[in-house]
Amino acid sequence: MSNQIPTQPGIMEIALYVSGEARIEGRDEVLKLSSNENHYGCSDKARDAYLRAAVNLHRYPNTDHAALRAAIGEIHRLDPDRIICGVGSDEVLQFITQAYAGPGDEVITTEHGFSMYPILAHAAGATPVTVPEAERRIDVEAILGAVTDRTRIVFIANPANPTGTMLTEAELERLASGLPKHVLLVHDGAYAEFADGFDGGAGLVDAYPNVVMTRTFSKIHGLGGLRIGWGYARREVIDVLNRLRQPFNLSEGQMAAAEAAVRDVEFTARCREENARWRHWLRNALVQMGVGCDESFANFVLARFANPEEADACDKALKENGILVRKVGGYGLPDCLRITVGDESACRRVVHAIGTFKGVR
């Protein structure tokens, strides 16, 4: 006789999330290029603000994140009252799915889209619907063609993870304008700061009532260890999401570090410039070795090999050289490796290792 307590619909359909590897057995020193972290760390100002916040560990944090929202609004020229903060952008995405999707509803994701999207759909009891991409780029017409009366949410990451590709402004406009009013377009801009001149989807939010933009402090701001994200939408949507947010979801340390990070625009600009420089260099070096690599607008590149066996062999060779990258077979890309862009030393080291593996160095 089973005494198992029944779960809600969709829960057991969830595939456990697999993060990038962090260790290599038998090696103390590892070059970790598997999780798209900021190789330059975080702003010194953010670190100092976090340490100063430690004197108030006995106090409950502010519940409305007012100072952090004000800083985000000031730097990004957004209305702070239309911003919600969460434990990473994942929590904001969870609020959205919980609020707007449920049993009988459909949530559209793309072929190589971020793996959290179907997880969140299943957690809400909704059905994830995967649409094909076109040569590792989001296919707007395929998304619009997949919309039904049951569709409630469309998730896109732009720039996309793990491909690094990006929709043009015209393509984004076509997608937003083509969706029915009952469908919420969620524009995940986790890597938006790495795309020079891109507003991360803020303009779409202002133009369309059914668009939400999410952002994170884990990437260009280098605060992945603290888990802080935010979303921007119409006031009516933010009001709904705030009803799902727990009152003390962010600590004082998280908020202090994030506020200092977003205000340190000089550090952010340096990280963007260095990333662009070495991303370009890394891609060109891979292409010259015969490794396929699309233009990336994020802080990583997607290296394409002849077949899954070559990708696996290269991954093994990199590990033997103390280098960790990300296998992305779970994203439908078994012949690819995702490589985080590091500093000059890291990029030269990974290129040398791949070149040796390919027999061209």
Automatic annotation (TrEMBL):
N6-(pyridoxal phosphate)lysine sites (modified residues): 219
Protein keywords: Amino-acid biosynthesis, Aminotransferase, Histidine biosynthesis, Pyridoxal phosphate, Transferase
One Pfam short name: Aminotran_1_2
EC number(s) on file: 2.6.1.9
CDD domains assigned to the protein according to its UniProt record, in alphabetical order: AAT_like
Pathway: Amino-acid biosynthesis; L-histidine biosynthesis; L-histidine from 5-phospho-alpha-D-ribose 1-diphosphate: step 7/9
One GO term (biological process): L-histidine biosynthetic process
Domain called Aminotransferase class I/classII large: residue spans: 29-354
Catalytic activity, reaction form: L-histidinol phosphate + 2-oxoglutarate = 3-(imidazol-4-yl)-2-oxopropyl phosphate + L-glutamate
Source taxon at top rank: Bacteria
GO MF, one annotated term: pyridoxal phosphate binding
Keyword Transferase: yes
Cofactor(s) for this UniProt protein: pyridoxal 5'-phosphate
Subunit architecture: Homodimer.
Family (UniProt): Belongs to the class-II pyridoxal-phosphate-dependent aminotransferase family. Histidinol-phosphate aminotransferase subfamily.
Stated name of the protein: Histidinol-phosphate aminotransferase
